[in-house]
Amino acid sequence: MSLRITTLSENTAGRIDALAEWGLSILIEMDGHKILFDTGLNMSAIHNADLLRVDLTQLDRIVLSHGHRDHTGGLYKMLNRINKQIEIIAHPDVWANKYIRSSSGKDRYLGIPFAREALEGLGASFNLTKEPVWLSDNIVTTGEIPMYTEYEKIEPNLQVKEGEKFLPDPLWDDQAIIIKTEKGLVVILGCAHRGTINTLHHAQKLTGVETIHMIIGGMHLIYAAEERIYLTIGELRGFNIQRLGVSHCTGLPASAILAQEFGDSFFFNNAGNQIEV
After folding, report:
1. How crowded is residue 192: how many other Cβ atoms within 10 Å of its Cβ?
2. Cα separation of 25 and 33, whole Å?
3. Which of 33, 31, 121, 35 is nearest to 76 (CA)?
4. Which CATH number covers residue 248?
5. C-alpha span between 90 and 132 (Å, rounded)
6. In the predicted model, what is the mean pLDDT of residues 83-92?
7. Contacts for 217 with CB less than 8 Å, ≥ 6 apart
8. Are 7 and 33 in contact (CB under 8 A)?
9. Number of domains in the chain
10. Segment 165-173 mean pLDDT
């Protein structure tokens, strides 16, 4: 039962000729399945897949962590490359009218930058559900993630537009992928808008497995106060995680602290990185 995780798109590149682009896209290969988690912002996932000799036409499914464009903006080009009918698993709120608001009044659209009909015309078959989806006997999406902690909160400037009104975005569409391995759980985060620790507790409850071997992906600590970072570190230590591979929205200051705290267990998960468990 081997697991291979390949990061196709991320803010930074970890090898010559790989492209860096703000966002995230991760390929999961296990149990004879090839699952793409997010598609990045634009074209880097396809470029890096070609560099790594990944045949995207062999993908079985696509899972979207949430509806922000830095995780969905590569969908159109990806579907063109796949060139077949493919299931896309996401929460219904992935199609919400998502914005980031600023105090200066410069509101910026953050949602999926394509019409659903255009994507369906390229072969997308959307499976929109709030519930976890088992992709194999060992791979499952989290579905909606409850908020267990007091300190993990969603930034108030992330909002949805309904008619002419802006409302706080609860980001119920934020989800991760959980993989059961012989060493314990591997949890792959998109952005962890609903909290890394919340996601880990949910992963344990959903699978019945206590041991969390590895975390990979975005921890969304980029704007976090130092207090939240150290509260997160304290709880991560309680999980006894063996490998911590941060990406994307974790942020460089928080990543530097995590690197110091976790030593050899820590690594930057860049575009072009391949891991086998």
Report:
1. 30
2. 16
3. 121
4. 3.60.15.10
5. 10
6. 97
7. 24, 26, 176, 187, 188, 189, 190, 191, 192, 245, 246, 247, 248, 269
8. no
9. 1
10. 97
Q: Can you name the residues that pair with 216 across neighbouring β-strands?
A: 188, 245
Backbone angles phi, psi at 14, to 5 degrees: -110, 10
pLDDT in tens, 131-146: 999 999 999 999 999 9
User: CA 182 to CA 165: how far, in whole Å?
Assistant: 49
Query: Rounded mean pLDDT of the chain?
Result: 96
Structural domain range at position 20: 4-276
Name the nearest CA neighbour of 149 among 217, 208, 224. 224
DSSP states of 207-264: H----EEEEEEE---TT--HHHHHHHHHHHHHHT-SEEEEEGGG-HHHHHHHHHHHGG
Distance (Å, whole) CA 7 – CA 45: 8
E strand or H helix that includes residue 71:
helix 69-72
SS3 194: coil
Contact 9, 51 (CB under 8 A): no
Note whether 272 and 18 are within 8 A (CB): yes
Are 175 and 121 within 8 A, CB to CB? no
Confidence of residue 104 (pLDDT cuts 50, 70, 90): confident
Longest dimension (CA), the chain: 52
Asked if pLDDT for residue 226 goes beyond 90, the answer is yes
CB 110 within 8 A of CB 66: no
